[in-house]
Amino acid sequence: MLRMIERELIVFTIALLASAGIVAGIGLGPAIWQQATQDPTFIIFTIFAIFVVAAIVIFRELIGLIREHRMVSAIMPRLGQFMALELEPAESQSVFGKVLTGIRTGFQINPMHSVEYAHEVSDAIALEEGRHSYVRFAARVCQYLGVLGTMLGLIIALGILYQDLSVEQSDLQHQIVDAIKHSMSGMYAAYATSVAGLFLGSILLTFGAILIQGSLDRLEIRISSLCRRVIMPQLDTASAQGGSDQAAQMMIKMLQGTLEQYQLLNAATQQQLQELANVGKQAQQLAGINSKLQKTIEGSARQLEIVAGFAARAMGLAAAKPRE
User: Fold this and answer.
1) Overall pTM > 0.85
2) CB neighbours of residue 293 within 10 Å
């Protein structure tokens, strides 16, 4: 298994060494360096710098994927007790650790719901693919820079030819030779940038990106297979065993909720009865006050009649017959 997961790193290293060996074997190294220093567009150096950075990223990602495969191998013997599985900090940060954590969290939230492990795996792999996209972007940039260097080199070469041939000289043959010599740096930049962008970007960097994607695809297949064959049967068994317990717990919760509602309704009813009793007492008090007020008014009316009769006799008038 170690040979399988380390194959991409070995193949990419061989490709780089083979390319460097071919260049050195046919003696192009000094010539390429000398001409690159004379490149007026500096695009060759730019392509080479992007290639070096992207190659370092490819090595780092391939080594990281080797580590991910080894994490799977380290966790796999303990998957027989998935619900009691304890992951170390380094294991929990791995792709497989994130998938296991997501599956267990989803099952704990709702044991009766079937956990879709494929979603967890695809989400974790998508995060890894997001980082690898920079390698593909660097390969495209090298290609575009090669095309751009071709155009700029030709423009520079044609501009030099135009300037040199526009100068009046007595020896036309010498003038043409000088113009061609001066324009060679631009012609070299035109073709060298195309070759550099094509070879370093389209071939080596794209090859490295393909190796990364192949290792990542095998990691996804391996994780999905373990989830389907080892983890999901354990979750199905735990869900079946806990189904009756969960139903009983739901019934108890429903009864508790009904009891709480009855208690709240009883308390509200008692409060309303108390309020009605208070209203009845207030009504009795008002009736007593009204009765006393009526008696007071009647007594006052009799007293007024007596006083009115006394006043009438004093004035010689016939006294009104008092009311019965």
Assistant:
1) no
2) 10
